[in-house]
Design brief:
With 554 residues, this protein is α/β, with parallel strands linked by helices. The protein is built from 25 helices and 18 strands. It has a 5-stranded parallel β-sheet with strand order 2-3-4-1-6, with helices on both faces. It has a 5-stranded mixed β-sheet with strand order 14-15-16-17-18. The longest helix is centred in the middle third of the chain and has 22 residues. The two termini are 57 Å apart.
């Protein structure tokens, strides 16, 4: 590590623009978004992007640039936007700004989530105590301000909150207000998950009426993960521009471009790692532009700087859970199995995509499943694909997402098998009934999703999963790197053990031969010897797999 690389600081977990700039942390310049946003002339712009693609940092940058209560010139020195001196003179720190995030608003019931919402609004109003000192402020506005500040406002008052604050700021500064709302859809996502969607939708729809024909607003920028149907939440809002991952405008401002990644790797003397970084974190197609996940690239760069040797790894799993995949697999496993297996083998599928969804109907169809995976970054549009008639070609974007799918499906399989009645299978194992073992294992195989293209690793994990959580001691020697049998199942209560040796057959016709080969290996290497003194019964099984067929011999 050279001295220059050692000085570089990666902003891990920091989404505040001012903090990043003041600490001289590494920042990929996205400030040109400001001029494009101003030139767009849209009253309301909604950006929908997957998690971890820099939405919150972008909103923080906008707040720092426009906020009349700040002096941000030094923060933007050297950035692209600073070259546009006329624009900076007109817009930088010249407008009152309301910046609000909804990402913390959640709860298992409406009452809890609603209390969180009121506390978030109370914190917001507490930033502007000077507004109610104005002699021109009407008494009823002062009363509502106090109630919102003290978490005592009625639901009607909560719905009026942002409209009131916009009005008071406009009156105080004599300038229209810029409204920045981050993660607008989180309260609705949590509400849909926990059964209070209608109540939360009513509140959020009321709050967002601030966007409707409001002459006190200069413009508003909203971010979220999904585009919720305009009719369901933004009723009556005019001049509303929706920018999704299929839109060409602003397509380079969320996530890192290939040029930006190459520059970053060069800056940390890691250009030789480019191919690995591309394999793991590239593959997203936003409006026809190739995009890398910024969260992953920054985390990898930090690890590279601070570790002697580092290989790319899965950083998405270290943030929030990937429950959306699991929730759909639980509901539609039979319908989606074939398509999933195509994707996991590196293939492509064609699906109709719905860009405007409502969270309460998210799980209502298989079609919505593919739309959600696409819009949340778990699948991406093939670069050559055309977004025609809303049907596009989809694939898994990179190695990291493939690992997430693999892990999620493993967990789903373990739960699914755990809920199945396996008594007939277990009885057959302890009775040396190989025909029934073959029959029962085949039934379970048919219900699974292959996440390793039917390689031996898949079947090994499949076999371990069958016995996990069933009251047996399961030892997988392959995972421990030992030169012993693949899987050992110990029934300590009854002093008996079952040994399995797994073989993968390249053709269906090879099942018998490979099963015999597995049995021969057990006998030749005498895997059973170490158990004969301790256990009263030792059962040895060779098992061969081909796709969703198996053969067991003992």
């Amino acid at each position: 590590m050279n001295s220059f690389t050692a000085k570089l600081k990666m902003p891990i977990g920091i989404s505040d623009f001012e903090t990043i700039r003041k600490r001289n942390a590494y920042y990929v310049d996205k400030s040109s978004l400001i001029s494009e946003l101003i030139n767009s002339m849209s009253a309301v712009t909604l950006f929908t992007r997957p998690r971890r693609f820099g939405k919150t940092l972008t909103m923080s940058m906008l707040e720092s640039f426009f906020n009349i209560e700040k002096n941000s010139k030094n923060l933007f020195d050297g950035l692209e936007i600073s070259k546009n001196e006329a624009l900076c003179a007109t817009w930088m720190n010249e407008y009152p700004v309301i910046s609000l995030t909804f990402k913390e608003i959640e709860g298992l019931d409406f009452e809890t989530a609603y209390e969180y919402l009121k506390e978030v609004l109370a914190d917001l109003f507490s930033q502007y105590p000077f507004l109610i000192d104005e002699a021109s402020t009407a008494e009823n506005d002062k009363e509502l301000f106090y109630n919102l500040q003290n978490c005592s406002a009625t639901k009607a008052g909560v719905k009026k909150s942002l409209k009131l604050l916009v009005k008071l700021l406009f009156n105080y500064y004599g300038k229209p207000v810029i409204l920045l709302l981050d993660e607008y859809d989180v309260p609705l996502a949590k509400a849909a998950d926990n059964g209070y969607y209608k109540e939360m939708l009513d509140i959020m729809r009321g709050i967002l009426q601030v966007l409707k024909d409001n002459n006190n607003l200069a413009f508003a920028v909203i971010t979220g993960c999904l585009r919720i149907s305009k009719e369901s939440i933004f009723t009556g809002t005019n001049n509303f521009k929706i920018n999704t991952i299929t839109s060409k405008r602003f397509n380079e401002y969320f996530g890192f471009t290939e040029r930006e990644v190459k520059e970053l790797l060069q800056d940390i003397n890691a250009s030789s790692q480019y191919d690995k970084v591309k394999e793991w974190y590239d593959g997203y197609n936003f409006g026809g532009v190739e995009i890398y996940c910024p969260w992953d690239v920054i985390n990898y760069a930090d690890d590279f700087i601070n570790e002697d040797k580092v290989e790319p790894s899965c950083y998405w799993n270290n943030t929030s859970g990937n429950t959306i995949i699991r929730s759909f697999i639980d509901r539609f496993s039979n319908e989606i199995r074939d398509d999933f297996e195509v994707l996991l083998k590196g293939g492509q599928i064609q699906k109709t995509i719905k860009e405007d969804l409502t969270y309460d109907l998210l799980h209502s169809s298989e079609e919505n499943f593919w739309s959600v995976l696409y819009l949340t970054g778990y699948l991406t549009m093939v670069k050559e694909s055309k977004f025609i008639s809303k049907e596009i070609t989809l694939k898994i974007p990179n190695k990291e997402i493939r690992e997430i799918f693999n892990d999620t499906i493993k967990e789903w399989f373990a739960t699914t098998v755990g809920n199945m009645n396996r008594n007939k299978l277990f009885q057959a194992i302890w009775n040396a009934d190989v025909a029934t073992i073959t029959e029962q294992m085949t039934k379970i195989l048919i219900r699974t999703i292959s996440y390793y293209d039917y390689r031996e690793d898949f079947y090994h994990a499949f076999l371990v999963g069958i016995f996990t959580g069933a009251g047996y001691s399961v030892k997988s020697n392959r995972e421990n790197g030992e030169g012993r049998s693949d899987v050992v199942i110990k029934d300590n209560n009854n002093m008996r053990v079952a040994i399995f040796e797994v073989k993968y057959s390249e053709k269906k016709a090879y099942l018998e031969k490979d099963c015999d080969r597995a049995l021969d290996q057990i006998r030749d290497r005498q895997y059973f010897v170490e158990f004969e003194d301790e256990y009263e019964e030792v059962f040895c099984y060779g098992i061969s797999f081909w796709k969703k067929r198996c053969l067991v011999k003992g």
